[in-house]
Amino acid sequence: MRIRYAQLLKGCIALIITLAGLYIGQAVWQNYAVDLPLDKALNGISGVESVTWNNSKNINDAVNIHVNLDNTANLHKTYKDINEKIQQTIKNREYILQIMDNRSEELEQVYYDIHYYIQKSIMDGDFPLLKEKVREISAASETVGKVFVDDQYVYLQLTKDENSLYSIVSRNSDRIGGISQ
């Protein structure tokens, strides 16, 4: 009986040591293979102020990445650079990218006045009118407004003084209204 108890105790200790080793190995891999390269890659992009992410314990869950931008010159280019670096670093893993800004109530009001034109442009494809309306509305509020368009998104960038508002709206026609970040 005493021999079985000793063998059972040794087996339990071996199991605990194995699980601890696996946990430590996974933590080290996460830190050196994912976290540090992602942090270094994203902080090296012009316009990126800070980066945080919420990495789930489950490998199948999406990684939530929050990127704070300072006053960037070109939201479209910065957003594309960020996505490219994330894809290179985390490979095939799913992620959700959220662009954070330092908006003011005044910039939110300007966005509110412009967002109808964004939705209209997505529906009818009249992006030259959108560019004109962004210029007109932002000039009336003494705000610098820029709009960029590609095949996936409409990028709106509003800046006044030290405040910036960034909005990225999906052009997917299967969603009425798109997704704004």
Can you walk through the features of this model?
It is a single chain. The chain is of the alpha+beta class. It contains four helices and six strands; from the N terminus they run H-E-E-H-E-H-H-E-E-E. It has helices at 2-43, 75-90, 105-124, 127-140, and strands spanning 48-54, 63-69, 95-100, 144-149, 153-160, 163-170. It has a three-stranded mixed β-sheet, covered by helices on one side. Strand 4 and strand 5 form a beta hairpin. Helix 1 (2-43) packs antiparallel against helix 2 and helix 3 packs antiparallel against helix 4 (127-140). It is elongated, with a radius of gyration of 24 Å.
Q: Over the alpha carbons, how many angstroms does the gyration radius reach?
A: 24 Å
Count of runs of 4 or more consecutive helical residues: 4
Main sheet strand line-up: 1-2-3
Percent of residues in β-strands: 15-25%
N-C termini distance? 65 Å
Tell me the helix content: 40-55%
Taking pLDDT < 50 over at least 5 consecutive residues as the criterion, the unreliable ranges are: 175-180
Secondary-structure element string: HEEHEHHEEE
Please tell me the overall pLDDT.
84
**Content-based structural category:** alpha+beta
What gross morphology would you assign?
A: elongated
State the total count of DSSP E strands.
6
Largest sheet: 3 strands, mixed
